[in-house]
Amino acid sequence: MEKNPERERNQIMQACTEHGLALDTRQIEQLEEYARLLESINRSINLVSRKEESSLLIRHVFHSLLVGFHYPFQQGEKVLDLGTGGGLPGIPLAIAYPETDFLLIDATGKKIDACREMITTLGLKNVHAKKIRAEELTGLMFDVVLSRQVAPLRKLCRYAEKILRPEGLLICLKGGNLEKEIEDALDSAQKNNGLPSDVVQHPLDAFDPCFEEKYIVIAYR
Ligand SMILES: C[S@@+](CC[C@H](N)C(=O)[O-])C[C@H]1O[C@@H](n2cnc3c(N)ncnc32)[C@H](O)[C@@H]1O
Questions:
Q1: Can you tell me the distance from the alpha carbon of 62 to that of 67, in angstroms, rounded to the nearest whole number?
Q2: CB of 168 closer than 6 angstroms to any ligand 1 atom
Q3: Which CATH number belongs to the domain containing residue 52 in this structure?
Q4: In whole angstroms, what is the distance from residue 181 CA to residue 157 CA?
Q5: Count of domains for the chain
Q6: pLDDT, tens digit, 9 for 90 and up, residues 73-113
Q7: Which of 71, 86, 144, 190 lies 20 to 30 angstroms, CA to CA, from 129?
Q8: What predicted TM-score, i.e. pTM, was given to this entire model?
Q9: Quick check: helix, strand or coil at residue 101?
Q10: Structure ipTM
């Protein structure tokens, strides 16, 4: 799809306003700058699919912001982005919610280096990046664990249940038919007395045709 920056900006601003996510001019500029940095770094490090670069602002940045339509992050909350890659969904959400603390983790060091470079360039103070595997993370607790296109729900639940506060949520961005995956996660949780006790799936196709068969999946304790 051909880029139309003004149309994309208006699309994002309108949807965010309608869903109670107020973004000021500086935040919009930071989101666009992040999309440019991602596109540029993506030429040397594979952070996002290259064939999708033309509408990167919509496919990746807007897609990440949609989490905020279902979970408005609060001041002082601690959020983990597990398997962040090039900072998705953590960096767009850190821009949109400057009073919330985000930690981005990934098993791949060069992706974390790229995240750190983008965080510094964008001047973000509420987001940090660390090279570590999810299963090695100890001593930290989070209000929300986020994950976009990383692992089956059952596996993400096993990681998240050890690091989520009692009322905490696991929020995933996923695609395709998720019925079997959700059933597996619920079965496994019942056997292990773990996360999740319930899973809710929210379709995203109303926000843009490129989100057809994409969902926000929320796993509750
Ligand atoms: C398909 S990429 C998605 C990246 C990003 N979330 C996005 O939406 O563009 C999956 C990422 O998860 C990371 N990953 C997979 N398993 C992980 C684990 N157990 N701990 C930390 N990172 C992991 C990989 O290194 C990779 O960068």
A1: 9
A2: no
A3: 3.40.50.150
A4: 12
A5: 1
A6: 999 999 999 999 999 999 999 999 999 999 999 999 999 99
A7: 71
A8: 0.97
A9: strand
A10: 0.99
